[in-house]
Each structure stands twice: as structure tokens, then as C-alpha cells.
Prior knowledge:
flat; 0% strand
Amino acid sequence: xxxxxxxxxxxxxxxxxxxxxxxxxxxxxxxxxxxxxxxxxxxxxxxxxxxxxxxxxxxxxxxxxxxxxxxxxxxxxxxxxxxxxxxxxxxxxxxxxxxxxxxxxxxxxxxxxxxxxxxxxxxxxxxxxxxxxxxxxxxxxxxxxxxxxxxxxxxxxxxxxxxxxxxxxxxxxxxxxxxxxxxxxxxxxxxxxxxxxxxxxxxxxxxxxxxxxxxxxxxxxxxxxxxxxxxxxxxxxxxxxxxxxxxxxxxxxxxxxxxxxxxxxxxxxxxxxxxxxxxxxxxxxxxxxxxxxxxxxxxxx
Length: 301
């Protein structure tokens, strides 16, 4: 039997074969969506650029060259494909190193916010009653504030810096995941297999983390992927306002803030990082939309 036939078998003989087969079917469905593949290519390119930044960047992203001869050079200048900024630093090198900060923000916010949202949502949905009321009203209070405004408040309290910006964005990002997890939990908490597990003596904690959370993961993964663009824009907004990554770190939002003074005559200083934010945000949105069609049964066409 070929590997493909083994993966696509309708009668798997082991749990491992069933899981690998499901993953392979998901990949085949995702591969059939060319927009999702474009998004995946952009995200993979972001990861590769971040990993190989020291070898891809032609210059130091922090230290500029001669201010008399290399300041505010336009794109396609000799040795500077995207031009230089007001401190004679190569914009391409700063964009390449900026992918590391962008990827770090996205990854850490997802790692911090997703478990919090799952914990709150599944606990509220499973127990119901006053537990559900307290947790969901607290979630509603957090949702009542715009994400950027609330993040600004937390960063102002914690102090400017990329670490505090990540914490602030994570604190403001978990409520949508909690509401989604609660909705999914309400649909399965009275299922027969949950009742059977409870009759076998399983604790509520085990039922939530071993049975409820895995069933909520597909919807949450889709929502997290779609929220990546918003996380990037929030981080860029904090950097633009001077509350995110601090100079001379090559953060895209801070680069736009530094280039706004030259927007009329030296447009490339602020435009190039803006284009980078647009492309990466578009990639995450396309990938998230494709994952929604594949992983969410309600979103399948």
C-alpha cells in the first residue's frame, strides 16, 4: 500500500494513522485554495527572513553610514535597494531585521492569549451558572474597550518597551477566544461522550482539557490566525506612538513614525515599512480565511 493510500484509508488501524490521515486531508483541502497558499507563502517567507536575517541583510540595521553621502538616498541607489533613512541606515536591512520583532510579537501574543482565552471560555461554558456569569461579564468589560486604547493604557502603566507592549497586547487579545471557546463548549458539554466520561469518574479538569479543549482548538486556531493582522497593526501602532520597541530597534511602526517628517519629499522612508506591514497582514488574513474553510465545518462551502 502506498503512503497516500495509507493516509487516505477510510478504515485506519491505529490512532496515529487516523491523525496523520486527517492532517493530510486538511493539507489537501488547504492546497486547493490558491489564496490560502499565497498567504502561507507570505508567512513562511516571513519566518525564513527572520531566521536568516544576519545573512540576508546587507548592512547593520542600527548603525548608519556616512551622513554626508548616504543620508536619505532614494530607492534603487547603488548599494541600497530601498534607499536609506535620515540616519543613513539601509531601509532594506532594517525591514529584514524588523521581521524578527514582528514574528516575536505575533508568536508570544498567541502563546499567552490563546491559553487564557481557552481556559476562561471552556470553564464558563462547562460549569455554567454563576461561574459563567462572572467570567463572561468580566470578558464583556474587557471587550467594551477598543484593543488599541486598552493596550495604550497598559503600556502607559507598565512603561514603553517591546516586552511590555507584548504583555499589553496579549492582555487585550484573549476575550474573543474566550467567547468562541464558550460557544463551542455549550454545544458539546451535554454530549453523550462527555456524560460517559463523567460516569467513568473523570474530573471536571480532565474533561475540560482532554475532551472539550481539543474540540475547540480548530475554531480558535482559525480565529488566532485571522487576528494576527490585528496584532501586527496594534504592535505597529504602539511603536508609532513611541510606546513599543524603542530606538534604535528596527520596528516597522517606529520606522513609519521616524519617516513621517519626510513623507512629502523622501516618501520611501515611511512607505517601505508600511508596505511590509500591509503584505504580512494580508498574508495572515489569506491564510486564516483558508484555514476557516478547511477547519470550520460551518465555513465550508
